[in-house]
């Protein structure tokens, strides 16, 4: 059985920042890649200015700038995902993708026995700290960020596709977001193909740019919840700060 200082559920910027500062960390991610599309990124549709406070933060921002991810105040969310995955690989951060924590037990010595479901079957690890970074209790929707070349959005068509959804304009003319309500228990991985199939079932000129979960601003217990950050580098450095604070208390 492998023993870690911390097991993190979720692989956003805060988790990666934590894992950089606390190397004996395992990240468990349910999707097929790192998931950096945290809530404020989709609600604001732009990257608020932020000056990194750490060498690691400056290095990650330089990587993103080289990829043109924040050009003209916009966020290239697909590129953001690729950039973060590359960073994780290059820095040897231990991460399990397509993995679920299905059970854990707090032991008398204040450590956790954790059962993981992976492609290889069940795996068991032990950790001193367990942080669940998912927004399980927050009001939730799935957001389709799309581009439309038509002079006006075909609202009746969108309403027929997604009766309970609503549309809002984004950072520039021709870009929109369609928010589809979902329950906290909705399985994003199962829901995504259904959305894409429904979108493709009609003659629709709008092009999907990105689909991601979107969460309301509700307070969460996890210190690394990215909902409070409007900039991915700020979220990344918050993870570093928490890991360093915990090291000081060890």
Low-confidence stretches are 39-44, 217-224
CATH class of the largest domain: Alpha Beta
Total DSSP helices? 7
- Look up the CATH topology of the largest domain: FAD/NAD(P)-binding domain
Largest β-sheet summary: 6 strands, mixed
Which term fits the overall shape? Answer: globular
By DSSP, the count of extended strands is 10
| Arithmetic mean pLDDT | 78
**Biggest sheet: strands side by side, in what order?**
3-2-1-6-5-4
By oligomeric state, this entry counts as single chain
Write the CATH homologous superfamily of the largest domain: FAD/NAD(P)-binding domain
Structural class: alpha/beta
Q: Nearest-angstrom radius of gyration?
A: 19 Å
Number of domains: 2
Binned strand content: 25-35%
Helix fraction by DSSP (H/I, runs of at least 4): 25-40%
Features:
alpha/beta, FAD/NAD(P)-binding domain, 2 domains, 6-stranded mixed β-sheet, 4-stranded antiparallel β-sheet
Q: Can you describe what's shown?
A:
The structure is a single chain. The protein has two domains: 2-136 and 220-249, FAD/NAD(P)-binding domain, CATH 3.50.50; 140-215, Alpha-Beta Plaits (2-Layer Sandwich), CATH 3.30.70. Helix content is 32%, strand content 28%. It is globular, with a radius of gyration of 19 Å. The model is unreliable at 39-44 and 217-224 (pLDDT under 50). The protein has 250 residues and is α/β, with parallel strands linked by helices. The chain has seven helices and ten strands. Helix 1 packs parallel to helix 7 (232-249).
